[in-house]
Design goal:
single chain; 194 residues; mainly alpha; 77% helix
Length: 194
């Protein structure tokens, strides 16, 4: 593969998420100031937006690469993992919820690796994509700093409960889509005789 094929706009957007993750780790350190928290929020939000943009851009301009297909889901998971893990010591989400979400992601990533090594690509399901959007929304809300919004019905407690509620829903969808993914993985492997 040529250098030109690697340095595409979608791959650079994916690379941005890899660079963003360790910076986000630093800015989500427990008890950050409102300014630092706002920076972390915008950093995470830009990472989310690059995830939505890179695949669309690659398909629209027909510049999808093998590297992009491999690294895009990994970059997404790295960004989400950093946010989930750092929100635990901040007291915003329970550790057991993070464990469920991360365990599913590790299992599915392993299954994808096994499938890919056999030349089989199992596309993300609609449920998986909806789960990702729900997770991103929940994490954006939970990362957003307390004490910034002064609209009566959007007080801090409401925002935190909304974010946590969406994360619980996304966790259920995470497990559900994981079971669906495993079922499709097993079915394809039985049909192809692997």
């Amino acid at each position: 593969m040529s250098k030109h094929a690697i340095l595409t706009i979608p791959n650079l957007l994916t690379g941005y998420r890899f660079v963003t993750a360790p910076v986000l780790l630093f800015f989500l350190y427990p008890q950050p100031s409102i300014g630092v928290s706002l920076f972390a929020f915008f950093l995470f939000l830009t990472g989310v937006l690059t995830d939505l943009a890179d695949g669309y851009y690659a398909r629209k301009h027909k510049i999808e690469t093998v590297l992009g297909k491999l690294m895009d889901p990994v970059a997404d998971k790295v960004l989400v993992c950093v946010a989930l893990i750092m929100l635990i010591p901040m007291g915003k989400i329970p550790a057991w919820l993070v464990f469920i979400i991360l365990a599913r992601e590790l299992v599915i990533t392993g299954l994808r690796g096994v499938a890919a090594s056999s030349g089989i690509v199992i596309a993300a399901s609609g449920m998986g994509k909806l789960k990702s959007i729900m997770q991103y929304t929940a994490l954006c809300i939970l990362i957003f700093p307390l004490g910034v919004v002064s609209i009566p019905f959007l007080h801090d407690t409401f925002l935190h409960e909304l974010g946590l509620g969406l994360l619980y829903v996304s966790a259920v969808m995470t497990v559900w889509s994981g079971v669906d993914y495993f079922y499709r993985f097993q079915k394809i492997f039985l049909e192809t005789g692997h």
